[in-house]
Amino acid sequence: MRSVSGPDAVSGWVVRRPGPIASGPLVSVRRPAPEPGPDDLLLTVEACGVCRTDLHLAEGDLAPRRPSTVPGHEIVGRVVAAGAAVTRFRVGDRAGGAWLRGTCGVCPYCRAGHENLCPASRYTGWDADGGFADAALVPADYAYPLPDSESATRLAPLLCAGIIGYRALRRSALPPGGRLGIYGFGASAHLAAQVALAEGATVHVLTRSAQARELALDLGASSAGGAYDPPPEPLDSAILFAPVGDLVPVALAALDRSGTLAIAGIHLTDVPTLNYQSHLFYERNLRSVTSNTREDGRAFLETAARIGIQVTVSPYPLSRAPQALEDLAADRVQGAAVLVPG
Fold it and tell me: Domain named Enoyl reductase (ER): which ranges (predicted)?
């Protein structure tokens, strides 16, 4: 194993008892530093984005897969140790750890380029400890090289919010120069919108947050209205980022003929009964989005660098991770919340 002087112990947060964020599901811990396996990187964490999936895990909307797991899967860090089999990274490199952290590589989905559907897939902050800490282990094959020229807080949201938003945009089948509706406008949506705008789309944002509507217009959206408002014109495509099932029929009804709605979240409240004539007829399409492939990640990071994507960040010290989740739950976060170890 190649290493420099790494940490002897790791401080961070774990989900001890999932429940409403006000009940205190996050607990501060200090543990011995993990030892990298042959294919692992040990990172000192420079920043970790706070994703809505972290909130779902803390509150129990997603059942824990192991006890007392450190959440967080938008990890920017420096390599302080690398396993003997690692060839893509060296000690001192900046690397990013994301949601997808392992697949089998041999199932029909993996062989067909759909590793996001691998039944054996594993996830950072769910199947293994994540980045709500000052150090984290990341499998080298699922890590992304990151530039030294950008701030860690700006890079962190790209590693899930950006990647998932990019996949959701592709799943929405937006045609060239098309009309895109975005429902909910948080971390992922404000990045996906910029990719769509850079590709020539007209973007209409529908969200309950007045602050988010202002950000959408600042980024170039053609309109910004309330979550349940009709957009000013029929939509070719729509993406639902808000985890609100009631918005599914609303978004479907806003689609033009043959339009597509992509649902981007890992968790969604129940969808009400759909009316075939009003919501699905005229070949309207309804699609889900499941995780991402590493190719999605590479393609998005290249696109983000090329278009000079703007990342709106609300930084929090690592010590205030519970407050960051509480603010996210209450829609008080502008753009993306990011934890910074002190």
Answer: 19-339
Does the domain spanning 163-288 belong to CATH 3.40.50.720? yes
Domain 2-157+312-340, CATH homologous superfamily name and number: Medium-chain alcohol dehydrogenases, catalytic domain (3.90.180.10)
Rg (CA), the chain: 20
Environment class of 308 (CB within 10 Å of its CB; exposed 0-12, middle 13-18, buried 19+): exposed
pTM confidence score: 0.94
270-289 pLDDT per residue, tens: 999 999 999 999 999 999 99
Say if residue 163 is exposed, middle or buried (CB neighbours under 10 Å; 0-12, 13-18, 19+). buried
Q: What is the pLDDT of residue 8?
A: 87
Which tens digits make up the pLDDT trace of 294-305?
Answer: 999 999 999 999
Say which DSSP state 63 is in. -
pLDDT in tens, 286-295: 999 999 999 9
Structure tokens at 141: 């094959």
Cβ atoms of 101 and 124 within 8 Å: the answer is yes
pLDDT at 4: 60
- As given in the structure block, the two tokens for residue 115 are 């590793």
Q: Residues 292, 99: contact at Cβ < 8 Å?
A: yes
